[in-house]
Amino acid sequence: MIYGVATAAYQIEGASNLGGRTPCIWDEFAKGDGNVYKKQDGSVACDHYHLYKEDVKLMTDLGVDSYRFSIAWPRIFPEKGVFNQEGMDYYIDLLKELKKYNIKASVTLYHWDLPMWAYNDGGWLNRQCVDWFIEYSTACFKHLDKYVYSWITHNEPFCASFLSHTLGILAPGRKSVEEGVIVSHHLLLSHGKVVDLYKNTLKLKNDIGITLSLMWQDSLTDSFEDNLAKINSDGLFNRWFLDALFKGEYPTYMLNLFGSKMSGFSFIKDGDLKLISIDCDFIGINYYTRTTAKYDSTSFLLSMMGYSSLPKTAVGWDITPESFVKTVKMVREYTDLPIVVTENGSCWDDELNSDGTINDVNRVDYLKSHLQVVDEMNADGLNITGYYAWSLLDNYEWSHGYSKRFGIVYVDYETQKRYPKDSYYTYREIIKKNKK
Ligand code: IFM
Which of 92, 190, 258, 322 has the most CB atoms around it within 10 Å of its CB? Predict the structure, then answer.
């Protein structure tokens, strides 16, 4: 079992105008009224761009086997068709530093920082974006594959499509069912094409997969209507992606639901679903919580989030390791591939004590209870091969800006000083014990 920590470029790097990088959709979205807490952006973040050696040292002291991070596309291609060696060199330096300490690199190609030049030309709504993504991925494979342990094409395509283009709460903040569906298809298509490129054209041999944000759905009550709501929410959050990736089809009931809000499905071309369902080496899942679905006749999904009495984190997410097990079992209905938990963690209002300690008891409990069920699931033969805590550092939590902390290391954003929290030491003990 691989133990790791995870981050993403836009959330930690900062240096948004250094090294030839150009703006991404988040730089722009953050400027808009009401999009992000206090209009905060990722221009400085945790300054990991400059402090990466210090952060690798934190990982080394933690004893993790692996570090999952993402590459900022606009550092590598700051303009359409223009490759930036300086951007690539930054990641080569980071990867060399990780190698020095025997930390395996798990690299995500797309964690939501679409370059503005691509967005201005239609972004993921434009099928050509798939080709731009292939060009970018090819450059990453060529320069970085020798340092990398595993590749992840996309992080949470649900968020990059429906949360970003239908519900409008993530960049670029669009509110259209049709756009969400088209974007989800192009993201999945780009995944399939990039895996095909990696395995069949370039014939590279490291592991490659995709990461889904799966969210277990319960119905608020046993009523017929709430059950219907649950089926539809499950379809949107989970089955739309799982069915496409593992069955090579989209769920018909979702096509029917979406269809009433769309002008058609001509953007789905012959052969797309075959490519989308290409064989991978693992499936990544990010698990945090579950939701309860309640019938809502005014929503296109006939569903809204219902009340739940379960204990919650500081972003209001239910704490339920039981739903983690249900989520993994749901994935097992689709595939025997190794499951990598590419993110799991919790958000709390941490306080830095005057002696530099942070007693994040709630995060410690969450971490322990979720790692405990990982052990139990593996004892039951569910074959989870990796677990990555989200996150190494407190960081830019998208529309919450810096107001929400998920790190096992506290970041003082004024000084950029890092303070390991109690959860960091707990995780270190667990890793040590499990390595014996
Ligand atoms: O911070 C995010 C991450 O970027 C994607 N998965 C969920 C995390 C917590 O919200």
Answer: 190
User: pTM for the whole thing?
Assistant: 0.98
pLDDT digits (tens, 9 = 90+) for 203-262: 999 999 999 999 999 999 999 999 999 999 999 999 999 999 999 999 999 999 999 999
181 CA distance to ligand 1 middle (Å): 21
Query: Parallel, antiparallel, or unpaired: how do β-strands 384-390 and 2-6 relate?
Result: parallel
Angle formed at CA 348 by CA 347 and CA 352, multiple of 5 degrees: 130
Tens of pLDDT, residue by residue over 43-59, are: 999 999 999 999 999 99
Which one, of 234, 205, 203, lies nearest residue 217 by Cα?
Answer: 234
Which bin fits 41, alpha (ψ -120 to 50), beta or left (φ > 0)? beta
Mutational pocket test of ligand 1: of 289, 343, 402, the residue with most ligand atoms within 8 Å of the beta carbon: 343
Cα 416 to Cα 187, 226, 251, 280, 397: the distances in Å are 34, 47, 47, 38, 17
How many Å apart are CA 124 and CA 187, to the nearest integer? 7
Secondary structure of 19-75 in HEC code, one letter for each residue: CCCCCEHHHHHCCCCCCCHHHCCCCCCCCHHHHHHHHHHHHHHHCCCEEEEECCHHH
Pair of tokens at residue 363: 């995060």
